[in-house]
Amino acid sequence: MLQSIIFDMDGTLFQTDKILEWSLEDTFNHLRALNKWDRATPLDQYRQIMGVPLPKVWETLLPHHSNEVRKKTDAYFLERLIENIKRGKGALYPNVKEVFTFAKENNCSIYIASNGLADYLNAIVNYYDLDHWVTETFSIQHIESLNKSDLVRYIIKKYGITNAAVVGDRLSDIKAAKDNGLVAIGCNFDFAQASELSRADIVIDDLLELRTILPRLQDSLSRE
């Protein structure tokens, strides 16, 4: 087995689309009530940029609004996401806990590296008891650059990781692996894009495939 696996959260472990529509609709209804929005909720536009840090989200969805409005919108959206998680409206992807158990039984440490904010990530980790398997969860807030490659580099340095894979659904995850000399495993899930996944070393359609892939990766690394 590899020494470590670094997982993305949204669109990889957590089915964000389960709470996305409710939370985004709540947020834009709030903006409408404040007379700061008068159009349809830009759900499709958000889906296209899913995975980028939230400040970038609001720059894209609210390009003509002030930074103050964006910050308040961000805070409200985060509140709605967390509330929907606590109400059980979200869901993990199939086989998350099975794969986590397999990794831990084979002495492979698990980390989460996400562009999500810490409070949001903690809500997911706590609701689904992921700390039972996950060594530590890292938010992009840990890194001033808001760059996922830098976040993964931070994890590697902190824990002295020498061989690992990054598992995620978007280009930022794949780049984070490549920029740090790690194996890039792309998840062909809800928000994935074929053009981005083409840059991964391996592409999976179900997390359970990792039970076969991870031991093979270690074997190939041992022969290098």
Distance linking N and C termini: 15 Å
**Shape verdict:** globular
Average residue-wise pLDDT: 92
Portion in helices: 40-55%
Series of H and E elements? EHHHHHEHEHEHEHEH
Q: Helix segment count?
A: 10
SSE topology:
Layout: E1 4-7, H1 17-33, H2 43-49, H3 54-61, H4 67-86, H5 96-105, E2 109-114, H6 118-127, E3 134-139, H7 148-159, E4 164-168, H8 171-179, E5 183-187, H9 194-197, E6 202-204, H10 210-223
Parallel strand pairs: 1-2, 1-4, 2-3, 4-5, 5-6
Helix pairs in contact: 1-4, 3-4, 4-6, 7-8
Commentary on this structure:
It is a single chain. The protein is α/β, with parallel strands linked by helices and 224 residues long. It has 10 helices and 6 strands, in the order E-H-H-H-H-H-E-H-E-H-E-H-E-H-E-H. It has helices at residues 17-33, 43-49, 54-61, 67-86, 96-105, 118-127, 148-159, 171-179, 194-197, 210-223, and strands spanning 4-7, 109-114, 134-139, 164-168, 183-187, 202-204. Strands 3-2-1-4-5-6 form a 6-stranded parallel sheet, with helices on both faces. It starts with a strand and ends with a helix.
